[in-house]
Automatic annotation (TrEMBL):
Keyword Coiled coil appears in the UniProt entry: yes
GO biological process: vesicle-mediated transport
Protein's name according to its UniProt entry: RH1 domain-containing protein
Residue ranges occupied by any RH1 domain in the UniProt entry: 60-148
GO cellular component: cytoplasm
Length: 256
């Protein structure tokens, strides 16, 4: 009786209705009749059942009698509890209630722990599903970022290639301009040498011209003097061969 009271204080079970036959070969209790003989003694385990167990379709339990209300047990634990209750009734009907007096609190504790484990398992399953969703989202984000990084790397490689190609083209242009500059410098040097030679040639020609001009002036001067002398001789009666004088005049004219 004391063990049953402890069990009732820890757990209030709503179990499936008790079958009409209590034990194998036992008589069925008519509707509205009093409980069987093994449930009548006050303080016995069966009396505790009568006070703490109500017949219902499902199974609920309450850890604290002063708590907010009963909590639904899992379907699996509910079915198991109904089967155990029916087996207890069969044993009590065949033997005596003291047969299950020590077993009852252990079964209650096992059912409590089993329901707690089932609830924890359900919570774990929910958490696992949430973690799977998070993992899928992270994986999707990772794949997206990986694709973006790949695109960025490809663009960077293309940029480096274009920069390298542009650098090569600029280098080729610089080398061509340097070659052209060297050619122009060489031409300028050749032109400077040519100008220098032309200037020297011009100076020589000027010297020759000045010499010829001086000689021409001197010849004209001599010729004028000669004409004056010839004219003077003619006036004084002297003679001078005229053809020779004319030939000299023609030479002087040709030099001038």
């Amino acid at each position: 009786g004391a063990v049953g009271e402890v069990s009732a204080a820890r757990l209030s079970l709503r179990l499936p209705s008790r079958p009409d036959s209590v034990a194998e070969g036992g008589a069925a209790s008519p509707a509205g009749s009093s409980p069987p003989a093994f449930c009548r003694p006050a303080g016995s385990l069966c009396a505790v059942y009568s006070e703490t167990m109500e017949l219902a379709d499902g199974v609920v339990y309450q850890e604290d009698p002063g708590g907010p209300g009963p909590a639904m047990m899992s379907e699996r634990v509910s079915g198991l509890a109904g089967s155990i209750y029916r087996e207890f009734e069969r044993l009590i009907g065949r033997y005596d209630e003291e047969v299950v007096a020590e077993l009852m609190p252990l079964v209650v504790a096992v059912l409590e722990n089993l329901d707690s484990v089932c609830a924890h398992s359900q919570e774990t399953s929910v958490e696992l599903e949430l973690l799977r969703d998070d993992n899928e989202q992270l994986l999707t984000q990772y794949e997206r970022e990986k694709a973006l990084r790949k695109q960025a790397e490809e663009k960077f490689i293309e940029f480096e290639d274009s920069q390298e190609q542009e650098k090569k083209e600029i280098q080729i242009r610089v080398e061509a301009l340097e070659s052209q500059t060297r050619q122009l410098e060489l031409k300028a040097k050749n032109y400077a040498d040519q100008i220098s030679r032309l200037e020297e040639r011009e100076a020589e020609l000027k010297k020759e011209y000045n010499a010829l001009h001086s000689r021409h002036t001197e010849m004209i001067h001599n010729y004028m003097e000669h004409l004056e002398r010839a004219k003077f001789h003619q006036l004084t009666g002297g003679e001078q061969p005229e053809p020779i004088m004319h030939s000299r005049i023609r030479r002087c004219a040709s030099y001038s």
